[in-house]
Amino acid sequence: MYRGFRLILALIKKDVLLEFRQQYSFYGVLLYVASTIFVLYLAMGQPENMIWNGLFWMMQLFICVNAIAKTFLQEGKGRQLYFYSICSPVHFILARMIFNAVLMLVMNLISLTLFILLLGYPLAHPLLFLGISCFGACSISLVFSFLAAIAARAQQNAALMAILGFPLIIPQLMLLMRLSTLAFSDVFQSGLLSIVLLLSSFDVMILVLSVILFPFLWKD
Amino acid sequence: MFRKSWWKILSFFLLLYTFIAGFLGKVPAKPILNETIRNLYFHVAMWFGMMIFFIVSVIYSLKYLRHNRTSDDIYAVEFARTGIVFGLLGLITGSVWARYTWGDFWSNDPKQLGAAIALMIYLAYFVLRNSLTDIDKSARISAVYNVFAFAMLFPTIWIIPRLVESLHPGGMGNPALDTKDIDSRMRLVFWFGAIPGWTLLGVWISTLRIRIQLFSLKHELHG
Q1: Chain B contact for A157 (CB, 8 A cutoff)
Q2: What is the pTM of this model?
Q3: Any CB–CB contact under 8 A between A158 and chain B?
Q4: Are B51 and B150 in contact (CB under 8 A)?
């Protein structure tokens, strides 16, 4: 058990080091975030609450697809074989998911700051929105991590990951958008707790499925 | 079992019974629904059929992951294909029903949306299959995706529409298809005519396709 944790930590450290050394991929995603938000600003100006909310979550979706596509698809075939020999698939996928979640959190914070700077500040409860957006970013990243693992097997096609991912992420996005409307005004929203519970159970389900199914993708 | 005809003839007669009893039989007169309740035999039966086929498909996918037999993969694909066709028909019959009871073909009802999303998820399954050229790899990876897609069916079609307000029966927590709710004459036609009839028809279509695929596979392998 302890060895498992150490393995996972080592794999995460490897990913973090890679990000720091090959900085172009991190800066690439950062540039993507900045330019899309800027384009949004040019197109929409300072939109009102619900549009702001919708735009924000759409941005999260696209950022996630891009950021995670980069991490999975920049590894060569030989390296996959190397990992196969040194650790079990469960450790690998858990380390990947944790790393992607952290990466997505960082991107989420950056994009939230840029959104507030450029597209206006309609939030009535900023801390609540921060919490919801962090939770949402992690949830979205879990789904796309697993899909990136599938797409990486399918001739490393980034577009495939997006195609597979969009229908799968719609229920979560809808729930997140509904949840985040809370932060804009003081309207009482019934069934709130059930949305949070549903989202959490979604995440748990995806995590469990990924851990069970990834070993089948692993052997190649 | 594929070659036997009794269940195919049975499916024909069950469907004949469904259509005749469905259109000519007596139905309870409810406000708003009136005669459109007859769509129960078609629309709801389609969704039942779709669920049955997706369950069969995921079972074969799991069997493929265990035993790596190509025939299991073929079964999984063909049942998923039939499931999608039934799902599309369910969506269409539902839209027609909606036009006459709710006013519009598409009212952004949570269950309609959930069903459309579920169908899109399964269509992505076929996109995935087509993008992989190696047979074994495509079978394995699509089996993995099939399990994932099946797991996503439950939140999208069953859980979320139950929790939110919906025009469909079953929103806000009430169960939709309660055994005490359905009228006894309709119950007979529904459970003994519509569901077995449509299901057997779908199995017939799937098995025909499976037989063709198995034959062409044998032809490829043995020349």
Answers
A1: yes
A2: 0.86
A3: no
A4: no
